[in-house]
Design a protein that fits this description.
This protein is of the alpha+beta class. Helices cover 48% and strands 21% of the residues. The chain is flat, with a radius of gyration of 17 Å.
């Protein structure tokens, strides 16, 4: 069986953390208020990355599968960063195994 690495991405949390780290002038309550005022739909996805390079992306709100080419913005950034991290980790693991 092919092992998987599971990650959950909640876009609202991403923007909250980004705002919190990028400014010294906003308090957590102010950031929450700004995010609430945006009245935006925030993505909530589960990513299952498999060791063979495949990925399954599930929209937690609708339980539908999402294709990587449908991702945009912060979700796409998250996907790419995790993909690169897992490729590097896999390569490092193989180097240690065959060294």
């Amino acid at each position: 069986m092919n092992a998987s690495h599971n990650f959950r991405f909640i876009e609202r949390d991403y923007w909250y953390h980004k705002a919190l780290c990028d400014t010294d002038h906003l308090l957590p309550g102010q950031i929450n208020a700004m995010l609430d005022e945006a009245h935006s739909h925030y993505a909530d996805y589960t990513f299952k990355f498999y060791d063979d390079g495949s990925v399954i992306i599930i929209d937690n709100d609708t339980n539908n599968r999402i294709k990587p080419k449908e991702l945009t913005g912060a979700v796409y950034d998250f996907y790419i960063r995790k993909r690169i991290y897992l490729i590097k980790y896999n390569l490092m693991e193989k180097q240690l195994q065959y060294a």
